Predict the structure of GIY-YIG domain-containing protein.
Amino acid sequence: MTGFNLEKFRFSPEEVREWGASDPRHRNWPVVYIMNNDSEIYVGESINVEGRMRQHLESDEKRNLQSVRVMLHETFNKSACLDLESFLIRFLAGDGSWQVLNHNAGITDADYYDRHRYQKTFEEIFETLRAEEGIFQRTLPEIINSDLFKLSPFKALNHDQAGAVEEVLEGLFEDLERGESSVSVVHGNPGTGKTVVGIYLLKLLEDIRRHDSGEPLDGDSMFSDFFTPGHPEMLAGLRVGLVVPQQSLRESISRVFALTPGLSRRSVLTPYEVGASDEPFDLLVVDEAHRLNQRANQPSGPLNKKFAEINERLFGADDPEITQLDWIIKQSTHAIFMLDTGQSVRPADLPSGVTRGLLEKAESERRVYPLLSQMRVSAGQNYVEYVRSVLSDSPPNKREEFKGYDLQFFSDLREMRDAIIKRNSEHGLSRLVAGYAWKWRSKSDKSAYDIELDGIQLRWNSTPRDWINSPDAVNEVGSIHTVQGYDLNYAGVIIGRDLRYEIDSGRIVFDRSEYFDVKGRENNSKLNIKYSDEDVLVFIRNIYTVLLTRGMLGTYVYVADLPLRSRLKKYFA
């Protein structure tokens, strides 16, 4: 199925009229079109494209566009055009060369007859737009592997995600209408798309707020009812922010927001920025909410001082029981938390009792929206539970098979490193990651190596920000703090000797002498808490669960402790 036609003309009343009259299909045939100027781009589909162009000429947002490209095909139908429109919007946002003017509510992922054949034509159209028209700057694989694509608000949501967004919106608008405050939780395991839901939601709210009632909207969208009179007015003037506790992920999301009309990188916030704000927020969405901090020794002296100052300013006293979660709730009328109670990885993170309390409170108010479908790992949701079971003291009875998922076990680190480099050359975005079981010598001595095993020498990540996309990442090893919240195609996971297996007791244990994340094991003098090895073991298990669930296409496993290697081999080999 090839042979599409690409027709081009200037976006002006005269040329639209002349082009429309040149072929009956320009007024009565399903097509997809692109309109752009030097910095902005818009993608649409229509059965009467000439009539649609005349509507765009009346639009304040569209009239500054200059060029039109129309894609026609003799076999196009409405379903295929909606699919191609969504395809182009997603990849234009991921390419990052333009500001995409579309709403994200129109992105679809519906199946239809012969869809797989149309996909080949879509790829041909993409390549023509890239190689001959200069619309795309990067190839499809390059875009697919980019954070701009993975974290884009232009996503086709799955059933769980779309249902959660719809229910969140319904509750939010009811609260806004009644003038009531609210606390909601979007809850899910690793890979269920919590971050995507948060980003999508903020873009959707901005689209509703800015919606021009004269612009037609796809009536098939499950969110079309929110683009009706009354809803934009309720959002007018609302102060909104996205809180991201993790530095690396925050930097990546900021770049996405900077390229998205209606969103701003200034609205991507640290918990400290929220706590210190003189002006409260109407709505805060908190990504990776389990990584918010309790009162503990912060990464620097100034932050310890700032924690105390924020407590005093917001609550009148520096009560050590106050957490950053309390800051968020105090500083916002409405708060939506993206939460996984099994992803806390440091003692300074919110304690399990606090996250459980947050979840229970939201459940009592019917404000918990579960995400169940696995969006990252192609092995499915069962794989996440399988990993947790394997790392527990009650492992599965036998190895489970995950059809189509590349799960391998290595007894030689050099072989696993070589395999990851090969996967990276084939698929991109393949990285080595490890538990913090080696000192970070190369942080202060760039010539030093950190991990030395099986005759090879490796270094930790050379940057804490956006390491996955850094130039030499494939030759380095990432820690939990550089990969949590990110997707990889392949993850080569090094399980260090911070995790050991005691043959006599038949238990997996934590070895404090082999764990070098100071913040990952230090006691909490602020709250007079001493963390036992059993306490820290919970965090270590969470860390390796996160690392072992990063790979979308496959996970490779190497274990340093020989007894543990023997125990785990049967589950991963």
